[in-house]
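Structure tokens please, single chain.
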Amino acid sequence: MKSIYLAKLLMIFVGISGCFSVLFGAWLAHGGQSLPLASQERLMSALTYQFFHTLALLLCITLFTLRKQMLIIAAGMLFAVGIVAFSGSLYIKTLFDVLSVGKLAPFGGLSFALAWLLLGFAGTKMFDHKLGN
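Here you go.
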């Protein structure tokens, strides 16, 4: 699959994830107040991770437009997988009481960690290029 096509799909994901983050955050602040405190805290963790990593994914797409490195697209894909696996599993576990889906959360967390590492490696390659290495 062409990397520019992947970047386009990731940008669509950013739009959807960002929109969901805002709308779900508003619901959680108002309608979600009737949920038990433990559920509210779990949902807030999922929302926080989703929002920050949606911004990180946007950074990846922006960097990719500047430097067409597959490491950056790979990092973006891992951020998207992390959002779905980590935040998505916490949402489903909490709101629909499907406990088995919670087993995906560690995989999502690992995806986030690997994405940050790939982004770091891609960044060093960008600076190496600027330094003439």
